[in-house]
Amino acid sequence: MGKSYVPEPFRIKMVETIKMLSREEREEKIAKAKYNLFNLNSEDVYIDLLTDSGTNAMSQEQWAGIMRGDEAYAGGSSYLKLIKTAQEIFDYNFIQLVHQGRAAEKVLFGVLLEKGKYTISNMHFDTTRAHVELAGARAIDCVVEEALDPSKKAPFKGNMDINKLEKYINQYGADKIALIIMTITNNSAGGQPVSIQNIKETSEICKKYNIKLCIDAARYAENAYFIKQRELGYQNKSIQEIIKEIFSYADMFTMSAKKDAIVNMGGLIGIKNDDQLFQQVKNATISYEGFITYGGLSGRDIEALAIGLKEGLDENYLKYRIGQMEYLAGLLDDAGIKYQSPVGGHGVFVDAKSMFPHIPYYEFPAQALAVELYKEAGIRTCDIGSYMLGNDPDTGKQLKADFEFTRLAIPRRVYTQAHLDKIAETLISIKERADKVKGYKITWEPPILRHFQASLTPIK
Fold this sequence. Notes:
With about 450 residues, this protein is an alpha/beta fold. It has helices at about 25-30, 60-70, 75-90, 100-110, 125-135, 160-170, 195-210, 220-230, 240-250, 275-290, 300-310, 315-335, 350-355, 365-375, 385-390, 415-430, and strands spanning about 45-50, 95-100, 120, 140, 175-185, 215, 250-255, 265-270, 345-350, 380, 380-385, 405-410, 440-445, 455-460. Helix 14 packs across helix 16 (about 415-430). The mean pLDDT is about 95.
């Protein structure tokens, strides 16, 4: 029996009408989109689970902040409010505003990485890996073994494999490791949390070899909630206290604020105490993002971000947020549909390899499931598998991902229990005819981050 639904800790004040196309219309739309969900128009989507990034519903306080935003080019009051808020939450001396997480990576990695260097992460997400490679470096994943078995339940499947981490450092040489990146929660591993103990142990290894530790902080609040629920000694700690301890072990962070800060646009770079590095970051920000006190954002966006950073720490909200994932996962448990378990913080990652064992990785089972979800019910999702992973940057050969997940990323404060029921019903329907579903092949792809633009066709 699945979990009961956690009631929303808010009232709905505004609604947006969405439409439902017929199956025939949806099949025509996805064919025209060359079987790439990113090519669909949003008005042709009924339930949009493509991402939880920037697709959130802002609060009345944030919308009020939109009207108060200071649009000054330099030194605006909204900027000063944001910096003060971020410094209070993370306890870092230096905060740099950018327009989103991808920009944070471009700015910071451009300063720290170069050809011949490596980064090691509990798992790089696609854009993180891309920015590592664009800077000339190479990315190495180092997640714990239990993460590789979706059916195995473990409290912190997002953790760094500490033994492998040290082996990789010795194998490649500490002087070649430019950065250790800890992604919280671990998106590519299924939104799985990382324990404070693991972050602390990773930090100790970084100090031993004089390597900087960077946190990918897109979903830091959700990770803190999991720590409070699951890690011994943290049940009586506040979310804020847990966050301060997490970030105390790192030297810097990048953040897409479009997730846990519950805004539609924004990002941050945090530097704990390295003023020389911060100056380099500021210099790069001016080149890529605009002046340092607006970082590619309007003043109204900055004001909403300052408010959202605090709202995302509310425990009642986080209980509801994680509760949505647990509710949907419970429905899938009842139907015998496998996913990365226990369920993560920002979505349910359905095990497409388990649903379609007859589709090999190079025919992209997770993308096949994403297409079926759209054709069946107008649900737009995303492949987190070999299709997204792409080709080896040196050999050009298709890489085989550790997982073939179809990610159902749930936007914050957007969808209701009835929407989640519809998602589960659709997956059950697809499972009943799973053996008839075919894979896909790529007919065109760009050289990097191909899944955003590639064209596909069904295999006959």
